[in-house]
Design brief:
globular, 6-stranded antiparallel beta sheet, alpha+beta
């Protein structure tokens, strides 16, 4: 995705054209704003979409030089002078820093990353938003420091070694996302969320200024009062996401709750709104989204999805996402030409909507029991039961692994999948990063559901879903209203039973937006059970329109492409996977004996990453 790149090189030992090469590496389209600034030892530049920050950068204020990406959503609160009400994001950061110093991080809201260079002190400060919406990769080599919004730009320096991080490889194979702030390369890291990074005189410091805390207490309000508050917060969150945009706004609309909630809260009388849904005609998702869009009076666009996106867009997807997402993120890239054709200025998507949920109910049987009022009444009392730290840690770790270890879900073992040599090398790494994440969660959460929600939020959601949504950003500016600070604060403090089954969201829609109540929501218990049954007896490729489980069938259509990548000599001799067992996985899936869509997607993604970034 577009962004900001640069380095601090006190000894002038980097390649002379490195900055220009880094800028070029993250410039994927014509029309990006490209600017550079040099003040030895700093060299920095940006190549970014012009929609949110069209003003020249860096913004200069006394000794400060500011580069900025993203958008501030509470500008009015931060501007003490009326002359700044229409100021740029970078200008507001400069003014806030002058008035408040680094404590500005407790005052600024939005989705952003800011770079503050102090010419007098020769120091660089980098701050990002609470959720790390805009990824930044960095590497420290002695007294030198490199940073970039895209990993590929860092690799242009010969100082950054392509040394594989086995911990990250193992995590990706098992969970299809990385954990913590690791990357696939040793000594290259992702800037943590809610961070202040300082680099001065060769010293790197990173401090976290915020972390999410889920309340263990029962609320004092009625469910109806909470639903009313949620409705107001949704409305404000969508307004802040749109900001002063008066152009065309797009919504990635599905048949689920989250995008529907965005759509219903858009000020329809002020904006031209377009909705986009991808899939195949007859898919439940497509039908429901069309109904919602029509009811709200929006212009709806159907985006046909076929198996061809796997063959045509997998390499581009991995090149752009750099290991953040797998090849299936390519369906977002498949949608972009349609969004671009309508000249959308701002695209809203709701990938973070699942944060208003709790993961206490896992299996379908347990969900079914929770749906029964009498059992729900007694079972929800368990949500408030504190557990001893050791017991809590084990329970959270086991639950997360049980429902997110993709190998386990497809009844495969890591030992069988990997070559003997590689398994012996990494077997002691299995579960280490998850253990660290769980330990952190249990430091300040005492109940099972709160600790589990924390791990989901900081790991799976942050490293998989949220960043995968950035795949839209190489063509259109994207914003997620569910990452609104006030909305997240509310979500983390409501009684956990109101998040079970998304009950509070359903109540809010039913009460305040009854005009959509006649349109079913995809993802209910019945449809989930139907989908599980269909997968179990392997009929999803015959009736994909019923359960929208089309990836397995698509892989079989693209059998030649799958074999071209996975069964290629480069893949089989890379030393990571067991050659015979990989061949069996492909054979069993293609012959419809098993459904290994997740594992095959992972194998293709990882191999393409090696070819694009290492070989």
């Amino acid at each position: 995705m577009p962004g900001i790149v640069g380095y601090i090189d006190p000894r002038n030992s980097f390649e002379g054209d490195l900055l220009a090469s880094m800028i070029s590496a993250i410039t994927h389209e014509e029309g990006y704003i490209a600017e550079t600034y040099e003040d030895s030892p700093l060299r920095i530049g940006r190549s970014d979409l012009p929609s949110l920050n069209p003003e020249p950068q860096p913004f200069s204020k006394d000794e400060l030089r500011i580069f900025f990406m993203g958008n501030i959503t509470n500008k009015e609160e931060l501007t003490e002078s009326k002359s700044l009400e229409n100021g740029s994001n970078a200008e507001i950061i400069a003014e806030s820093f002058r008035n408040h110093g680094i404590t500005l991080v407790t005052k600024v809201k939005g989705q952003f990353i800011a770079f503050i260079w102090n010419c007098k002190e020769r120091s660089l400060i980098i701050i990002n938003d609470r959720f790390g919406k805009y990824p930044l990769y960095y590497a420290k080599i002695g007294d030198q420091f490199l940073f970039s919004s895209e990993l590929k730009a860092l690799l242009l320096s010969k100082m950054v070694k392509k040394e594989i991080n086995d911990q990250a490889i193992v995590d990706f194979i098992m969970y299809h996302h990385l954990i913590g702030d690791e990357t696939f390369l040793q000594n290259v890291f992702l800037l943590p969320y809610a961070s202040v990074l300082r680099f001065r005189s060769g010293v790197l410091e990173i401090d976290r200024y915020w972390d999410i805390r889920f309340s263990p207490f029962k609320g004092s309000k009625s469910p109806a009062e909470y639903a009313g508050e949620l409705n107001i917060l949704f409305e404000e969150a969508v307004k802040r996401a749109i900001g002063r945009n008066r152009g065309k706004v797009g919504i990635m609309l599905s048949g689920g709750l989250d995008s529907r909630n965005i759509a219903i809260h858009i000020p329809r009388d002020q904006l031209e709104v377009h909705t986009f849904t991808f899939g195949e005609r007859g898919f439940i998702d497509v039908k429901l989204a069309e109904k919602v869009s029509k009811e709200l009076g929006f212009e709806h666009h159907f985006i046909p999805l076929t198996s061809e996106f796997i063959r045509n867009l997998s390499e581009k997807t991995i090149f752009l996402m750099e290991g953040i997402g797998d090849i299936y993120t390519g369906w977002n890239l498949n949608a972009l030409p349609y969004v671009e054709k309508e000249r959308i200025d701002l695209l809203l998507e709701g990938s973070s909507g699942g944060l208003i949920n709790t993961r206490i109910a896992g299996s379908l049987m347990k969900q079914a029991f929770f749906a029964l009022p009498l059992i729900n009444k007694f079972a929800t009392k368990k949500l408030y039961d504190p557990l001893p730290k050791d017991e809590l840690s084990v329970k959270v770790r086991e639950h997360y692994d049980y429902y997110n270890n993709q190998l386990r879900l497809e009844k495969l073992s890591l030992e069988d999948l990997l070559s003997k040599e590689y398994y012996d090398k990494v077997k002691n790494l299995v579960g280490e990063s998850l253990e660290k994440a769980v330990h952190k969660a249990c430091e300040f959460h005492k109940t099972f559901n709160n600790a589990l929600d924390y791990v989901y939020f900081t790991e799976r959601h942050r490293r998989l879903y949220m960043n995968a949504s950035n795949s839209f950003r190489w063509k259109v500016e994207t914003f997620d209203p569910f990452l609104d600070y006030d909305l997240i604060d509310f979500m983390s403090n409501i009684p956990p039973e109101l998040k079970l089954g998304r009950s509070i969201v359903k109540d809010e829609l039913r009460t305040y937006h009854p005009e959509l109540s006649h349109i079913p929501v995809k993802g209910g218990l019945a449809s989930s059970m139907l989908g599980r049954i269909a997968k179990r007896i392997r009929i999803s490729n015959v009736f994909p329109q019923i359960i929208d489980d089309f990836l397995s069938a698509y892989l079989r259509v693209e059998e030649d492409f799958v074999k071209e990548i996975i069964l290629d000599e480069r893949t089989l001799t890379r030393g990571i996977f067991n050659e015979e067992n990989v061949k069996k996985i492909v054979f069993d899936h293609m012959s419809n004996r098993k459904d290994y869509a997740a594992t095959i997607g992972m194998l293709i993604s990882l191999e393409l990453w090696f070819r694009l970034f290492v070989d």
